[in-house]
Inverse folding.
């Protein structure tokens, strides 16, 4: 009896040791799994090069032709102002602008230098931002201001009657600084100099003769693609 009792005791101890070992292995495995998860870094997104069967241009296809070089706008310090002839002036942070409804559209930018790029743009409608500020009846012109001092303008009807996008993404990636972060205007049916980058302010005006940077240097104020960019 004593011998049988001793054997049973050994078996119990063996089971306990095996169970303890399994628990230790499980705990260590879980810890390693958690550590691995914490070490994973999200890689930068890669731009898409095809959309609905159509080949897209690339971020790299654009040429640097801004008036003061690439602007580096601080995301945390950034504000977008909508002011001028409006009932309710607005000032948005970058994240607040992104809370607006977003839209995607395939549009080609045509530069007066002779090159063009077709990109999938994503952003907010300019008319939504303007309508939220309630333009006054006298307002007939929209003036866009950029971080580098660049400006350009459009008839108010152009941005109200058309789905004009203020883009924060191109080809499914966030605009890089050289392409206008935080926002670039996608001025559909207009020459490239109307596609203002690094937008900081949208001003409502009653001056239809306002002329922006290139417009005041002999470029067409309308910037329509079906007309010469030179006046």
């Amino acid at each position: 009896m004593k011998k049988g009792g001793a054997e049973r005791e050994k078996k119990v101890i063996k089971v306990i040791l095996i169970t303890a070992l399994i628990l230790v292995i499980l705990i260590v495995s879980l810890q390693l799994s958690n550590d691995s998860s914490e070490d994973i870094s999200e890689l930068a997104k890669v731009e898409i090069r095809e959309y609905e069967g159509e080949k897209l241009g690339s971020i790299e296809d654009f040429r640097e032709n801004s008036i003061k070089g690439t602007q580096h706008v601080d995301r945390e310090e950034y504000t977008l102002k909508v002011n001028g002839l409006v009932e309710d002036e607005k000032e948005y942070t970058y994240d607040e602008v992104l809370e607006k409804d977003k839209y995607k559209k395939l549009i080609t930018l045509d530069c007066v230098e002779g090159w063009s790029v077709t990109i999938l743009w994503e952003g907010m409608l300019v008319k939504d931002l303007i309508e939220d500020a309630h333009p006054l009846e006298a307002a007939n012109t929209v003036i866009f201001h950029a971080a580098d001092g660049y400006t350009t303008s459009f008839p108010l009807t152009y941005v109200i009657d058309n789905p004009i996008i203020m883009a924060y993404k191109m080809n499914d990636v966030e605009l890089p600084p050289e392409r206008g972060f935080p926002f670039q205007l996608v001025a559909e049916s207009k020459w490239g100099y109307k596609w203002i980058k690094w937008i900081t302010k949208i001003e409502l005006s009653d001056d239809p003769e306002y002329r922006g940077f290139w417009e005041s240097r002999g470029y067409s104020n309308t910037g329509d693609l079906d007309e010469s960019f030179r006046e």
User: Anything to note?
Assistant: The chain is about 25% helix and 25% strand.
